[in-house]
Design a protein that fits this description.
Keywords: Hydrolase, Metalloprotease, Protease, Signal, Zinc. The chain is of the alpha+beta class. It is built from 16 helices and 11 strands. Strand 1 and strand 2 form a beta hairpin.
Length: about 450
C-alpha cells in the first residue's frame, strides 16, 4: 500500500513540476519586421538577450560555401561604435558572457548578463545588426581563425570529417549537401564585396528574431527595444528556392579514409522529415530507444553484453527541410564493421516487426519528460527554445506543448515510422576507415 501511495505521489509531483514549467511569453513585430519574444522571470537577477538569424549553410551559393559560419565569427570584429577587440571586453566588464553558433538553417548569438546590464546586451545586438564593419582587416583575421578551427575540428580530429561525408552522400541537390564549416578555398577566393552582399541579404531585421528572457520590466524593455532596433531599416524579402530531393531507393555505399584514426567505424544514415513534422518526433524517440546513451538497446547489446563494439554512435540531425538519423559503431577485438552493421540491422528489424515493451515505452516517455523540463530550466535555455520554435518550427508555443507530441506517440506509431524510414534501400552506408598506408 505504501508503495502505491508513493508512486501516486511521485506521479502527482511530476505532473505538478511539469505544469510549473509552463513558459509565459509575449511576442510581437516591430515595423521593420523584427520579431520580438519576451519571457519575464524575476526569480533571479539574470537576463539573456539573443538574436537568431534565419541563415545557415543551406543559404549559401554552392561556389561560396562556409559564409554563414564565417559570419558567426566576423560579426564579433566590431561595429561603427565598437572598436575591434572591444566586444569581449564590454561583455566581461559588465559581468556577462556570450557566444554564437551556426547550423544548417540558422545562426544564433546570445549574451547572458546580470539584469542591470540588459541595455548593454540590447545595444550590442543592435550594433551587430545595424552597424557592422565588414572590412578587409576583419575578413583576413577571421579567415585565419576559421582555417585553424577547420584544422582542429575536421582535418586533424579523429572522425572529424564524418558529418561532412554523410551530408555529401545523403543529399544530391539540396544545399544541406555541404558541411556547415564549408570550403576554405571558397572563403579564400571570396571578395570583400561577396561578404558585404551576404551581410546585406541575410542580416536584416525581417530575417531575425530577438528574444529577451529573464529579469526585466516589460514596458521599459519594450521601449529600449524600440529605441535600439526600431530605426534599423527593413531588408529586401529573401527568396529561398524549394529544393526537393528524390527519395533514396537503393542503398548508397561510400568509403572515407581518415588519417587520424586506427579503429574503423560503420555509419548508417537515413534521410527523415524536417524537424517540425510529427514523424520527426517519432524518429527522435526511435533514436533514443536504439542508440542514445548507455541505456539504449544497441549500447547495452553491443558494448555491455556482447562486447562487440567500443562505442555506439548516434547522431540525429534536426533540420528545417529534412532531418536525418545516423547510427553506427566502432568494433572491438576480432569484430568487423560488417558484424556491427548486422547487429544494428537486427535491432532495427525488431523495431519494425514488434511493438516495444510497455516498460521500454514508459522509460522513453520519462526520458523525454526529463529533457523537456531540463531544456526549460534556465532563461538561457528558454531563450534558445523560443527562438528556434518560432523560426524553424513556426510555432513558438511548442516550448509548452512539444512534450504533448511525445506523450501522444504510440508504440504502434514507433513501429510504423521505423518501417517507413529505416529501410536498408533508403540509406547511406559509410565505411569510415583508417587511412591506408603505402606498402612502399
Amino acid at each position: 500500500m505504501k508503495k502505491h501511495l508513493f508512486s501516486a505521489f511521485a506521479m502527482l509531483f511530476g505532473i505538478t513540476l511539469l505544469s510549473a514549467q509552463e513558459v509565459v511569453y509575449e511576442e510581437y513585430d516591430l515595423d521593420n519586421g523584427l520579431h520580438v519574444i519576451l519571457h519575464q522571470d524575476n526569480s533571479a537577477p539574470v537576463v539573456t538577450t539573443s538574436v537568431m538569424y534565419h541563415v545557415g549553410s543551406k543559404d549559401e551559393d554552392p561556389e561560396k560555401t562556409g559564409f554563414a559560419h564565417f559570419f558567426e565569427h566576423l560579426l564579433f570584429e566590431g561595429t561603427k561604435n565598437i572598436e575591434r577587440g572591444e566586444w569581449d571586453q564590454i561583455v566581461a566588464s559588465n559581468g556577462g558572457r556570450h557566444n554564437a553558433n551556426t547550423f544548417l538553417d540558422r545562426t544564433y548569438y546570445y549574451e547572458v548578463f546580470p539584469s542591470n546590464s540588459l541595455e548593454v546586451g540590447l545595444w550590442l545586438e543592435s550594433e551587430r545588426l545595424m552597424h557592422p564593419i565588414i572590412g578587409q582587416v576583419g575578413v583576413d583575421t577571421q579567415k585565419e581563425v576559421v582555417q585553424e578551427e577547420k584544422r582542429l575540428r575536421v582535418d586533424n580530429s579523429p572522425y572529424g570529417a564524418f558529418f561532412n561525408e554523410i551530408l555529401k552522400n545523403l543529399y544530391t541537390n539540396h544545399p544541406y549537401r555541404w558541411g556547415v564549416i564549408g570550403s576554405f578555398d571558397h572563403l579564400a577566393s571570396a571578395t570583400l564585396d561577396d561578404f558585404k552582399k551576404f551581410n546585406q541579404t541575410f542580416y536584416v531585421p525581417n530575417n531575425a528574431v530577438l528574444v529577451v528572457a529573464g529579469d526585466f520590466e516589460t514596458d521599459e524593455t519594450k521601449k529600449m527595444i524600440e529605441d535600439y532596433f526600431g530605426p534599423i531599416p527593413r531588408g529586401a524579402e529573401i527568396k529561398r528556392p524549394n529544393v526537393e530531393e528524390e527519395p533514396i531507393t537503393k542503398t548508397k555505399f561510400a568509403k572515407y579514409y581518415d588519417p587520424n584514426i586506427q579503429i574503423p567505424a560503420i555509419l548508417l544514415a537515413y534521410r527523415t522529415p524536417g524537424q517540425g513534422q510529427r514523424d520527426a518526433y517519432v524518429i527522435n524517440m526511435i533514436s533514443t530507444y536504439l542508440s542514445s546513451g548507455e541505456s539504449s538497446k544497441l549500447y547495452k547489446k553491443l558494448v555491455d553484453e556482447k562486447k562487440m563494439a567500443l562505442q555506439i554512435l548516434s547522431v540525429p540531425i534536426d533540420a528545417e527541410d529534412y532531418s536525418s538519423y545516423i547510427v553506427g559503431g566502432l568494433p572491438v577485438g576480432d569484430n568487423s564493421i560488417q558484424d556491427i552493421k548486422k547487429e544494428i540491422d537486427e535491432e532495427i528489424l525488431k523495431l519494425q516487426m514488434e511493438l516495444i515493451s510497455e516498460k521500454d515505452y514508459q522509460k522513453l516517455q520519462n526520458k523525454f519528460e526529463n529533457q523537456f523540463v531540463n531544456a526549460n530550466s534556465s532563461v538561457e535555455g528558454i531563450a534558445n527554445s523560443l527562438a528556434e520554435n518560432y523560426m524553424l518550427k513556426d510555432d513558438t508555443d511548442l516550448i509548452n506543448s512539444e512534450i504533448d507530441i511525445y506523450r501522444s506517440i504510440t508504440r504502434e506509431e514507433i513501429m510504423e515510422v521505423a518501417k517507413k524510414y529505416l529501410k536498408v534501400n533508403q540509406r547511406i552506408e559509410l565505411e569510415y576507415l583508417p587511412e591506408q598506408k603505402d606498402a612502399n
